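Would you kindly consider the sequence and fold I have copied below?
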Amino acid sequence: MILNYGLFPVLEVFVIKGRGVVAAGKVAEGTFQAGDDVVILRHDGSEVKSKVNGIEIFGVFPYAAKGDMVGLLLAGISIEDINSGDLIKR
């Protein structure tokens, strides 16, 4: 079941050449799927808007649910826009 909310604490951030920024971590609440609009809540209190372009779990999956360890491929941001410890919500 796809829920209409999600929380994702960021454990690690990296770039896949030609694809973009990936935030790796474990889905804490709800679900995420490709096409979701998300907000990155940064440590300094600022927010950065993005979109989930894809979900990676040793391959491409249509969605991620609570407890899944995944990488969220994020659109329209640079590696400077997100850090370990930030929170992604939708």
Observations:
- The chain has a mean pLDDT of 91.
- The beta strands are 6-16, 20-26, 29-33, 37-41, 47-56, 60-61, 63-65, 69-75, 87-89.
- The CA atoms of residues 26 and 69 lie 4 Å apart.
- The longest strand covers residues 6-16.
